[in-house]
Specification:
Number of helices: 4
Shape: globular
Strand order of the largest sheet: 1-2-6-5-4-3
Largest sheet: 6 strands, antiparallel
Radius of gyration: 21 Å
Helix content: 40-55%
Length: 165
């Protein structure tokens, strides 16, 4: 390789390595310094705080339960999933608006959706901020709010076995 070309390639090594490190650390930063207990507590607070926005009558439907996730580069982690349900209200559009606004205030990136048909189901899903993912489904048959915590370091198999004792 010619000396000039070698210097150009060598000169790119440091910036490329730095960029790769930023990408890796950004992907893993959600779980750095956080514990499984924090992940569980944060998703419970998030979901229950979201239910407060649209009124009373909510009951746990699922969880908080342990789930698997990835921290990047083949490193496994854990997260908690939590869901609550209640009967529908008379104004699902206003409820979706309220949850959407609440999540945006918490730093969640939201996207509203609606199913097709004569009686569409309205909803809003979110990512980021204090959660990995979240969903509010304003179905005329009943409401559901669920969320998955950020991924944190943890051994899913060991924690699953420990919780069965």
């Amino acid at each position: 390789m010619a000396p000039t070309r070698w210097r150009a390639v060598a000169g790119l090594r440091a910036p490329v390595a730095a960029l790769l490190m930023v990408v890796v650390l950004t992907g893993c930063s959600a779980g750095i310094g956080k514990t499984p207990e924090h992940a569980k507590e944060s998703i419970v607070m998030f979901v229950e705080g979201s239910t407060d926005v649209v009124g009373d009558g909510w009951e746990p439907n699922d969880g908080p339960r342990l789930g698997k996730c990835g921290l990047g580069l083949g490193t496994g982690g854990i997260q908690y999933v939590y869901a609550m349900v209640r009967s529908a209200s008379a104004d699902p559009k206003a409820d979706v608006e309220a949850v959407d606004q609440h999540w945006k205030e918490l730093g969640v990136t939201t996207e509203r959706y609606q199913t097709g048909g004569d009686d569409p189901i309205l909803g809003v899903r979110g990512r980021g901020g204090p959660v990995s993912s979240s969903d509010f489904r304003a179905d005329p048959r009943g409401y559901t709010i669920d969320g998955s915590s950020q991924c944190v370091a943890g051994d899913f198999e060991k924690m699953s076995l420990d919780s069965q004792e």
